[in-house]
Every structure is written in C-alpha cells, then in structure tokens.
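Design request, tokens follow.
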C-alpha cells in the first residue's frame, strides 16, 4: 500500500510557466527545511501540457505519475478541478493523489498582487500536500508550530469560509514548519526507512 521508497528525492515539476527558476530554488530550500532529514534532494523538472485553463486534478496527477513516477510536487498555473465535486466548490488550491506519491498545487487561485505572498501561499499549500505524501493527516483544530503560525496540516472548513476567506483565514495563517506532533510522526515513520 503505502510505499516509503523513493520519498527521499522530491521531483519538483513545473507545469507551465507559473513560477520562475529563482522562485523554485527558494521553494526547494524551504521544503527541504520543513522535511529536514527526510529529503536528500529536490530535482527541478518541467512538464508541458496543452494550453488549457483548467484540468481535472486526477488527470494531472496520473499524467505526472506515468511520466516521471516517484515523489512529486507539480506546480501549475492551470485551475485544478475536483471531478467529483458539486459545481460550487469545484476548484482546488492543491491536492494529493491517494494512489501515488504525486501532489499538485495551482497558482491560479492563490495569486496576490504581492508576489512574495503568492509564493508563500504556494509553499504552504505545497507543504500540506507533501505532508500527505509522508502520511500526515489533517488537524481540524488550529495547531501552532514552532514558528507560532499554524501547522501546514491545519484544515479549516472550506465550505463555511468560501475561497477568499479560506485563503486569508486558513492558508495565510499557516506557517512553514510542522507542529511537534507532525514532526514526531515524520521522524518515527520515516527516518528508519530512509536510513537518516
Ligand atoms: Zn489535505
Ligand atoms: Zn501538525
């Protein structure tokens, strides 16, 4: 079922042109920091998709899995559709495929006029989805991490907030470090397997 193998190398896959090289470098550094001791390397790759405005998240994660395989975070500027959702809440900030170690995030709905805020949001959603790759689950209560912000696995009630309010109240309030409970889980569940 849940294979630990291959989690030590993350493939950071740029789907489209939504982030610059320098921003990818910064994202990699923060991701490695958050998963300290678990990630040996982060490879940067590009993947071309046809020019579309939206794509079913399932299809994208499957395509990335077939094309690259392994532990992947895809970053796209295309809207991610939840094929199973009702009309109203059909777009996602990010998601993780349960059948693989592929997670994707979209810059489409997290963009702010302030570029650094957009990148911070991208990182926060990315850490959350990668957390799922490592077996972390949601916190439905607001759990602070070492940096005082909420743990990236914090999940508010999207349906109650709606998109803009969820961004500001939940995603912006998350930090870049996992809480003690998540860090303990990561250490116990993965360090032995990864030989760190
Ligand atoms: Zn989640
Ligand atoms: Zn946590």
């Amino acid at each position: 079922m849940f294979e630990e193998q291959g989690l030590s190398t993350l493939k950071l896959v740029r789907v489209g042109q939504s982030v610059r090289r320098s921003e990818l470098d910064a994202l990699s550094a923060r991701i490695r920091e958050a998963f300290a001791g678990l990630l040996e390397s982060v490879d940067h790759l590009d993947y071309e998709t046809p020019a579309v405005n939206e794509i079913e998240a399932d299809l994208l994660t499957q395509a990335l899995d077939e094309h690259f395989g392994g532990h992947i975070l895809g970053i796209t500027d295309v809207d991610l559709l939840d094929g199973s959702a009702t009309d109203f809440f059909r777009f996602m900030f990010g998601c993780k495929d349960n059948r693989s170690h592929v997670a994707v995030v979209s810059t489409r709905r997290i963009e702010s006029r302030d570029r650094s805020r957009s990148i911070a949001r991208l990182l926060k959603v990315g850490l959350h989805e990668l957390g799922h790759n490592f077996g972390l689950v949601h916190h439905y209560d607001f759990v602070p991490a070492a940096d005082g912000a909420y743990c990236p696995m914090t999940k508010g009630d999207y349906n109650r907030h709606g998109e803009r309010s969820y961004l500001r109240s939940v995603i912006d309030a998350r930090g870049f470090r996992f809480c003690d409970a998540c860090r303990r889980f990561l250490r116990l569940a993965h360090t032995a397997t990864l030989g760190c």
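Comment from the thread starter after seeing the answer: thanks! The domain at 9-194 is CATH 3.40.390.10 (Collagenase (Catalytic Domain)).
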